[in-house]
Every structure is written in C-alpha cells, then in structure tokens.
C-alpha cells in the first residue's frame, strides 16, 4: 500500500510531493498527461510564497538570482498602481516566472528527492475503507488499481478527485467578461524607453505589468523574462466561443476598450492566443472527505486578478504535507489533520473576497469610475496601503492561537532560510545560555534546534512549524519553558523519553 497518492503534477501537486519527501514520506504522483503542458498559464508568483520558495532553496533556481528576495516597491490592486515602497514593513514580493518553468523546477526537485511521477495515468474512480483508499486508474497498462493510505486531489478546478469524493463546489459563476491574451510583436518606436510600456498614439503610455482600466474595459501589457510580449484585453461582451480567437479579434477589442488602434503586430508563429469567457469563484464545501484531501484549485478557484493563485495553492500544499507526514510517521497529536481545513479555508475565503472586490472595482461604467475616485483617495492613507499590502501578500493570515509568518531574522550571521530547507519544525534558541535546547530534547527526532545569537530581532526564542508560521515566541530573558513544552506537544506530538548515556 502507498502512503500518499497525489492526483495532479501541476505546481501544487509537485510542491506537496516535495514537502512529503522532505518529511520522509515517498508519495506517488499521478498525471493524466504524458507530456508537460506547453501553453502559458500563470506568469508569476505574488506574496509570501516567494519567501517560501527562498526558504526551501528554490528561489535561486527559479530566478537565477541569489536570495534573499526583495519586496516589490510597486504593484497593483484593482488596476490602481500602488506604491508599497513607502511602507516600513512591505510584505509584497513578486517573481516573474512562467508556470511551466515553476513546474520544471519543482519536478527536478521532486526527482532529486526520489518522488515517483506516473504520467498518462488518469484517475477514474475511488473507494474508501477505514485504513485507506483504492484508486482506479486508466493508464499505459489499462485499468488498474492503487491502494493508498491517503489520496490528495491537486487536479485543478475541474478536479475529478473532488467529484469522485462527493464534495460539492459551491460559488458564483460570472459569464459577463471576455478576456483575450495574445503574444505580440511591438515595433521599437512604440516601446517607451523610460518605463518599458506601450506607446499608444492618441492615448498615451500603457505601463508594463499593470492593469489599465477604462470605462469600457481593461488592458494590460508586458514583456516577460523569457522574451515574450503579451497584450491582454478584457471587456464585457458577447462572443461566439466556437470560433477560434484571431489577432483581428484582439485588435477590435482593443479599439473598443481604448478607443484607438493597438500599435502591435501579429507573430509569424503565434505563441499565446487564449480567450477566456466568464469566471468562477468557488470554494469546496469541505477540504477533506475521510482519507481524501484537496489542495489548490481543486479546493478553490477565483479570479486571476492580482496573481494570488499560486500564493494560495502552494501554501495549501505546504500546510497539508507536514501534517500528513506526522500522521503517517506516528507522532501527530489528535486533530492535527483537521487543522488543515480550519487554517486554509479562511485564507481561501479572503482571496475570494478581495478578487471579487477587485473585479467590481475594474468594471466598466461611470458609476464604477466614481467609486474608483473615492477608493483612490483612500490609497493616500498609509494605513490603507499597509492593509492592502498585507491582504494581497497573505501577510495578514493568522492561524488560531499562533503568530504570523516567521520574520527574516539571522542567527550568528546566517539567514533563516538556511535552516528551513529541511522542511522540519525548527526551534531557534536565542537565549544567552542556550537553555531552550534542553527543553526540546524529547522532540529532537522531529524538531531541529539551532542555537546562537539572533540578529535583527528582539526575540529570545522562536518555534516554527514546517510551513514557517510561528507557533511559539518569547522575548523574555528567561522564556516560559512550560508554554514551550505545551506548544511542542500541541503541534508535534507527545514527548519521547530521552535516555541518558551510561
């Protein structure tokens, strides 16, 4: 019997597999496709997930740049350019990386960790018993069965895992918006040298990598690290979805939304040509059905505005992985697996809320323009900007009775990211006498301990879960060791007897 079977080898499934492997569990990943997708999907990551990649040693692989990642001085919210550089604590991190490159890096890491990925295997059935799940597959060997203790659906918004588990997917379908995304060529005379934006005669400059709203729709434009230049036009319109998208359709939409022609040219070998009609905001009625769990788009879908999909889904995977591993390795405290949904559902609800709010704020019409004037005035308030930054980055996520995301502190001059690559719980003992290490001794089989002098922090002790959230913190010269022991037991199970050497 397998320990964990993961349906779906996209970013969320691969991240889950890597995290399980770090925790000593070797999952099997099932992917119905035989080759990785070539079409463009997500174009980057926004939020705490960028720092998470750094803390697993993946940031440099993705970007080619050594860490630490730097917060973005500017980003957008509901097509408002927002300056986050004014904030003393800017949590907005961004990385421009195509989803296919992210999948390549995660697949490479999974292979290094010994994860088995079976391609051409489609999930077509499942049944549960007390101690496991029988998964029915269509694959290269025909119809077969795999027995596993747990099954995780990371198979997207149309998740077959979710459907077979009988989990409903309530929410809202919006069929009003048509979005067209096309890779284009821009003549040099229409590229703004100062900003990299698109010069539109009779209109002005469309800034790069930002949403540009008019009363008739929205336009965005940008050049990506792989050299592609993309133009996206969104409007509320009727369209015949049976007719393939053409370059002429994109230009006509641009004319309607902006009021003039688009100064771009069609590529000889078209890359991205995608039309999206409508959208869904949905959250699974439950994230767990017995021994079946959902992560990422299988558990929630929402508008892509703001680029929060990977931030949400990848953190689902990291949250669930260590809890599943704890259960499989026999040290999980009672109810640990139930905290996956109680912690991650509110995060999904928050993203669903603010993406729907942004969708309303970028809609067409003079009434929305008036609302934008009011909202734009509020963005002059630094406290409002901080709240927006915390919201879109996920920095405002607080799990019950816990601290937030672990700060980027140093210990004896070494960055925190150097100690979190194992994916294990971590106790930072920053006291003068190193006394906390002895308290954690009965948990040393599952908790790493680092002692030393803390830089850029007043904390004397920090206990981090594998997902880098702070479970316990002390600023006292003599920390409350009883509360540390209680927190260790709450999250990492009962203490094991330490036998002194003879």
Write structural notes for this entry.
The longest helix has 24 residues. The strands form seven sheets. Strands 1, 2, 7, 8, 9, 10, 18 and 19 form an eight-stranded mixed sheet that branches. Helices cover 28% and strands 27% of the residues. The model has no long low-confidence stretch (mean pLDDT 93). The protein is α+β, with helices and mostly antiparallel strands.
Distance between the termini: 40 Å
Share of residues in helices: 25-40%
By secondary-structure content and strand pairing, the structural class works out as alpha+beta
Report the β-strand fraction as a percent range: 25-35%
Find the count of extended strands (DSSP E, 2+ residues): 27
Q: How many DSSP H or I helices?
A: 12
How large is the radius of gyration? 24 Å
Spans of at least 5 consecutive residues whose pLDDT stays below 50 are none
* Whole-number mean pLDDT: 93
Shape: globular
**Biggest sheet: strands, sense, closure?**
8 strands, mixed
Short overview:
28% of the residues lie in helices and 27% in strands.
Fold blueprint:
Blueprint: E1 2-7, H1 11-22, E2 28-31, E3 44-46, H2 48-55, H3 59-63, E4 74-77, E5 80-83, E6 94-96, H4 99-112, E7 116-119, E8 122-129, E9 132-139, E10 142-153, H5 160-164, E11 171-183, E12 198-200, E13 204-206, E14 211-214, E15 217-223, E16 229-236, H6 247-258, E17 273-283, E18 288-289, E19 292-294, E20 300-301, H7 309-329, H8 338-361, H9 366-378, H10 382-393, E21 410-411, E22 414-415, E23 426-429, H11 436-439, E24 448-451, E25 454-455, E26 461-464, E27 470-474, H12 481-492
Parallel strand pairs: 1-2, 1-10, 2-7, 10-19, 23-24
Antiparallel strand pairs: 3-6, 4-5, 8-9, 9-10, 11-16, 11-17, 12-13, 14-15, 15-16, 17-20, 18-19, 21-22, 21-25, 23-26, 26-27
Helix pairs in contact: 1-4, 1-7, 2-7, 7-8
